[in-house]
Amino acid sequence: MPSLAHELHILVAVMDRQADALLARSGCELSYARFLVLLHVSEADGMTQRDLAGRLGTSEAAVSRMVAGLARDGYLEVGRAVGNRRSLRLSARGGSALAAAGEALGDGFDRLVRATGTEPERLAATVRPIITALQEV
Predict the structure, then answer these.
(1) Band of pLDDT at residue 14, cut at 50, 70 and 90
(2) Any long-range contacts for 22-28 (C-beta under 8 Å, 24+ apart)?
(3) Which of 14, 48, 115, 130 is deepest in the core (most CB within 10 A)?
(4) Residues 40-78 pLDDT 10s
(5) Are 53 and 62 in contact (CB under 8 A)?
(6) Which phi-psi region, left, alpha or beta, contains residue 54 (left: φ > 0; alpha: ψ -120 to 50)?
(7) Are strands 86-90 and 47-48 parallel, antiparallel or unpaired?
(8) Looking at the domain that runs over 4-106, which CATH code has it been given?
(9) Apex CA 18: angle with CA 12 and CA 22, to 5°?
(10) What is the rounded average pLDDT of the residues 100-121?
(11) In sequence order, what are the beta bridge partners of 79?
(12) Radius of gyration for the chain, computed over Cα atoms and rounded to the nearest angstrom
């Protein structure tokens, strides 16, 4: 029988694939991974790549590659922060693409969760401390 960790891994993988498919069907120019990067940058203008890696739960190297591609394609502006850190900001194109993708994604997952008899806010409140505990390990 699969463990909770395995079930959650499958849930996240399926959600990511469904989000990518929805964005593609709607004609959005972003993948779900790129959407997430822009979303986090929009929430903390001027964040560093290290901060972004922490928020995404991924490596700095992976974030560096994603940021380079998003900057090359005109979605992000990369400046200098303290030391040799990079400061990230959405460009106008990035803001427009983020808004379009957010609209395409809508609240479909919340509706799906409600249809199973679970309140999205309650599920999020249950998951949040687990995420925090894992990040502290």
Answers:
(1) very high
(2) 22/104, 22/105, 22/108, 23/101, 23/104, 23/105, 26/104, 28/97, 28/100, 28/101, 28/104
(3) 48
(4) 999 987 899 999 999 998 999 999 999 999 999 999 999
(5) yes
(6) alpha
(7) antiparallel
(8) 1.10.10.10
(9) 145
(10) 91
(11) 87
(12) 16
Q: Is the pLDDT of residue 83 over 80?
A: no
- Tally the residues of the chain: 137
Q: Copy the structure tokens of residue 46.
A: 């001027």
pLDDT classification of 12: cutoffs 50, 70, 90: very high
